[in-house]
Amino acid sequence: MSRDEREKFLAGVHVGVLGVDDPRAGGGPLLIPVWYDYTPGGTLAVQTGRDTVKARLMNAAGRFSLCVQDETAPYRYVSVEGPVVEVTDPADPDVRESMAVRYLGADEAVRYLDATRDQLRDDITLRMAPRRWRSGDFTSFAQAIAEATA
Questions:
Q1: What domain of life is recorded for the organism (predicted)?
Q2: How far apart, in whole angstroms, are the C-alpha atoms of residue 86 and residue 141?
Q3: What are the domain boundaries of the chain?
Q4: Alpha-carbon distances, residue 147 vs 54, 74, 76, 111, 138 (angstroms)
């Protein structure tokens, strides 16, 4: 994917899989599905409880990765990795609202935000500056197969 394509794809609505180095019990990454917020050219934001394993590991590592994908053909994915450049404690309510609307729609977001209002006291917002990008777009491959079988 071109830079513009991958940034536009990442800005789309996908559940991300966050990865962070986990040195506990022999190492390997901790992988967790998350909601996220991203605007092309900006930072990528996630929110989590300040006392969660995920938050502790991201703070200790000072960086994390996120991978998003299309789950239907033609398959596409974008993976980003970079440093944590900002931690807002407690969580930024505007980011929380933006993510709720992004993933649930305006009407359902209002109910979700009301039901989870107390989480704002326990959650933090972490912002990552994407530095390393990986992407794949199998659209042309799918088109070649379709043409070959037509």
A1: Bacteria
A2: 39
A3: 3-149
A4: 45, 14, 20, 47, 14
Taking alpha carbons only, the member of 143, 126, 116 closest to residue 54 is 126
The CATH classification number of 3-149 equals 2.30.110.10
pTM confidence score: 0.89
Nearest 5°: CA angle at 1, between 46 and 29? 40
Say whether 100 sits in a helix, a strand or coil: helix
Q: Which of 18, 44, 19, 7 is nearest to 135 (CA)?
A: 7
For residue 145, what pLDDT band results from cuts at 50, 70 and 90?
low
Q: In the prediction, which pLDDT does 144 show?
A: 56
Question: Can you tell me whether residue 19 is helix, strand or coil?
Answer: strand
Please check whether residue 48 is in contact with residue 97, taking contact to mean a CB–CB distance below 8 angstroms. Answer: no
Complete DSSP assignment for 29-73: EEEEEE--EE-TTS-EEEEEETTSHHHHHHHHHTEEEEEEE-SSS
Residue 149 above 60 pLDDT? yes
The dihedral through the CA atoms of 102, 127, 10, 21 has a sign that is negative
